[in-house]
Write a structure and sequence with these properties.
77% of the residues lie in helices and 0% in strands. The chain is mainly alpha-helical. It has a domain of 214 residues.
Length: 480
């Protein structure tokens, strides 16, 4: 099954190159999305669809990565369906759309490889692959701002990847006689590692891969890339790419915990986490571009994840609950931002008004996304953030808890102010007529993926909370 996940995109790209049929673009992307979800779900239940295919130890589906793989599958399927309608409204050449399809397939393949890899070196290769594949997707519209965003993305992420590579070299020095980069070997021998070189390697890896995860102060590519990429790509970047980098950091942190160097690692993670929240609060409060607003929200939520892991205890479980909630809600938010852009032809918050009046479906999706991403009950993020606050209090870190709540409140106010203004402010009759004309280009594919994701996350929150918690407790048990 793993072989199929990694080989199908390459086969699909070859077929697209040979036949050059426009209809094949969506067919290949949607087929891969359905196949990806089918393999992820069956693997979750321990079913091997293709037992006669050889499995390689380099790639494994296990308790550590199955949540990340399932999130990628669910979000990718929603994006693929949305993209089928979205791309038809783009006035681009067949050749350009075909290249766009190549890169989506390779981008998802690279994220899948990074998630499934059991070797640190190979994970690094796939993380670099995500940069190369997604750079074209950010550059897709070829405007001045998109070209600038793509170059900034490649430049900053390449520096981050280079730092991570230095970290891997330092880690190999710390291992001494253990000549292996397999996570299992590194964890089982971690107590014998040289503490100095291990701690030094963690600095480089955390900053390097933290660049891909969007953690401050190495987050500078993220607001530009997320705001300039097509909305389906923004959803993938925020809801899945950042998760892939987060998993690599978790694997390295697991080594630090086993080597009894976790107090050092936790301090660094708390620092970057709170810095991410601070940066998000400052920029969201004065934001004027709604896609950039969502990008800074991603930085905020990555900061929350890293803080939760650093705290340990029940906050570790909260981190994985938050991971699921953020990925689904942010995918809904970014896909819906594509609707807003189609309707109003602008990314400026002040130029969007009367959203509920012009398109009720988009308006309600926009409001429900606000409730979800800002952790307003009944959002599952409320549960995770409540658990994190409880862990702060349990560990008697009162000052950090107050700062945490204050920064989240500022971010809540900033996002709510923008979203409510866009939904409820008055709109002129002339602008309404123009928007109605744009609305005619949109079909069910612009709405159904978001509503399905919304139903899914609501169902998981209300009916399957205990089952999910028990499943997550089996994931990274040593982190707490």
């Amino acid at each position: 099954m793993i072989n199929l996940l990694l080989l199908f995109p390459i086969i699909a790209c070859i077929l697209l190159f040979i036949f050059k049929k426009n209809c094949l673009n969506s067919i290949m992307i949607n087929t891969y999305a359905v196949l990806h979800l089918l393999i992820s779900v069956t693997a979750c239940f321990g079913i091997d669809l293709l037992p006669f295919w050889r499995s390689y130890p380099l790639f494994v589906i296990n308790n550590n990565n199955i949540i990340f793989l399932l999130i990628l599958s669910v979000v990718f399927l929603a994006v693929a369906i949305y993209n089928s309608g979205y791309i038809k409204t783009e006035q681009e050449s067949s050749r350009k759309i075909r290249h766009y399809s190549y890169m989506i397939l390779l981008f998802v393949m690279s994220m899948s490889g990074a998630i499934l890899s059991m070797n640190l070196g190979l994970t690094w290769v796939f993380i670099e692959g995500t940069t190369l594949a997604s750079a074209y997707l950010i550059y897709f519209h070829k405007t001045k701002h998109s070209v600038e965003a793509a170059w900034k993305y490649v430049f900053i992420c390449s520096i981050g990847i280079a730092l991570a590579f230095v970290g891997i070299i330092l880690l190999s020095i710390a291992t001494g006689s253990v000549n292996s980069l397999y996570y299992s070997d590194l964890i089982s021998n971690a107590k014998t590692f040289n503490p100095f070189w291990l701690k030094l390697s963690y600095v480089f890896i955390l900053f390097g891969i933290g660049t891909k995860m969007g953690l401050a102060p190495v987050h500078f590519w993220l607001p530009d890339a997320h705001s300039e990429a097509p909305s389906p790509i923004s959803a993938l970047l925020s809801a899945t790419l950042l998760n892939s980098a987060f998993l690599m950091i978790l694997n390295i942190f697991n080594i630090m915990v086993t080597a009894n160097c976790d107090s050092y690692a936790r301090l660094m993670m708390l620092t970057m986490g709170f810095l991410s929240l601070f940066v998000s609060a400052v920029f969201i409060y004065h934001i004027n571009n709604y896609k950039r607003m969502l990008a800074y929200s991603s930085i905020e939520n990555m900061g929350i994840l890293i803080i939760a892991i650093a705290l340990g205890g029940t906050a570790t479980l909260a981190a994985f609950i938050h991971l699921i909630g953020h990925s689904i809600y942010k995918a809904i938010f970014f896909l819906t931002s594509g609707n807003v852009l189609k309707l109003y032809s602008t990314k400026k918050i002040k130029s969007v008004s009367g959203l509920l009046k012009t398109d009720k479906k988009t308006g309600w999706l926009w409001l429900l996304s606000l409730i979800g991403i800002t952790a307003i009950p009944p959002s599952v993020l409320f549960i995770s953030e409540f658990m994190i606050i409880r862990e702060f209090l349990t560990q008697n870190k009162i000052a950090l808890c107050i700062i945490f709540i204050l920064l989240l409140t500022i971010i809540l106010y900033g996002i709510s102010k923008a979203v409510l203004k866009m939904c409820y402010s008055e709109i002129s009759e002339e602008k309404t007529a123009e928007i109605k004309n744009n609305l005619m280009q949109m079909n069910w594919k612009f709405y159904v993926p978001q509503f399905v994701l919304l139903i899914l996350i609501t169902y998981l929150t209300i009916f399957l909370s205990n089952d999910i918690a028990n499943f997550l407790l089996r994931t990274f048990t040593t982190l707490s």
